[in-house]
Amino acid sequence: MLQKLENAYLAILRFVTLLVAGALLIAAVVMAINSLRGGANEPEQAKLEPKVSAEQILQAISPEAPPNKDAAKKEPETADPLAHDYQRTAKAISRFIDKTHPGLGPLDQDSLLGALHSRSEALKKPEHAPAFVKGMADTMEKLFAAPAAAKAVKAQDPFDFINGALDHYTEQFENQADAIEVKNAERIANYQQEQADSAKNLYFAAACFGAFLLIVFQSIIIRIERNLRCLERLPKPAEEEKREGKNLSPAASQA
């Protein structure tokens, strides 16, 4: 009866051991795969490319919407790698004044370039200056060459119109730059979270695999102990019984 109970207990233990070991092994494999997938590549940073159209600026600087005149004044740098883009903007403004108000020109190019420099130097982040200056040149060339701009400037002072256009472009650029900074920060935060999750999955996979090995090792020990117990209960061979009988016969004769 005791032997039957022991056999039933070992059978149940074997089943539970196989079930738990299999589950641990599957979990270890799945967690290891997830740890390799998560955060494999760093996120690509969004590039700052200003998207301010001439139509947006015309709508913003119409007579119904007075321009903002809070631009800071600073001395321009003597040497600037962006000089070509500054000159593009200055020439676009000069051509616009010559076309719409010939009596006000020609404009002083040094003062005009200094005003443009002051706008880029007043940015929240100096590293955005190259994108700002190039975008300003592209936008202002399109804006001041448009017939709609020549028509709109008749309703207000030409310099207010030009400053309003530059103010609106600067405001839109800063808003877009802030949005891209937030987007990049979210990407970095998500990447760092993925890296942390991958590390957790790897640790969990190692723990599951270690538990799997421990259960397998315990199962092997139980199997070995059970086999040794069965060997002890096996009947002795006939030759060994004969030897034991011979060893006992001299003792019996002496008795």
UniProtKB/TrEMBL annotation:
Q: Where is the composition biased (Basic and acidic residues)?
A: 70-82, 235-246
**Keyword set, alphabetical order:** Membrane, Transmembrane, Transmembrane helix
| Organism domain of life | Bacteria
Q: Residues annotated as region Disordered? A: 62-82, 235-255
Which residues are listed as membrane-spanning?
A: 12-33, 202-224
Protein name, entry field: Uncharacterized protein
Classification from the root reads: Bacteria, Pseudomonadati, Pseudomonadota, Betaproteobacteria, Neisseriales
